[in-house]
Amino acid sequence: MPALKLSFDYLPFHLQQCFTYCALFPEDYRFSREELIHFWIGQDVLHSHGENKRIEDIGLSYLTELVGHGFLIKEEDEYGHTRYVIHDLLHELGLKVSAHECLAIYSSNVRSIQIPMAIRHLSINIDDSSVEDRKTFDICKEDFSALGKRLKVENLHSLMIFGKHQSSFVKIFHGLFQKAKALRVIFISGSSYRVEDLFHNFFNLVHLRYLRIQNEWGAKSQPPKSISRFYHMRVLDLQGCHNCSDLSRHMRNLLKLRHFPVPNDIVHASIYEVGQFKLLQELRRFEVRKDKIKGFELRQIGHLLELCGSLSIDNLENVEGREEADEAKLMYKRHLEELVLNWHVNRSNNDPAREDQVLEGLKPHSNLLKLCIRGHGGPNCPSWLGPNLSIMNLLSLCLDGVSWKIFPPIGELWLVNEDAEEILSNIPGQHFKKLKRIELKNLARLKRWVVGQLLSHLEVLIIEDCPELVELSFSNFSCNPILQELSIENCPKLLSLPPVPWTSARCSVRLSRVGLDLKSFTPFGSQLQLHPNSIFLSHHSSHQLQLQPGQQYFSLTPFQLQPAERSVCGTDIMIIYYPWKLLERVIRRI
Question: Is the dihedral of CA 499, 502, 504, 506 positive or negative?
Answer without folding.
Answer: negative
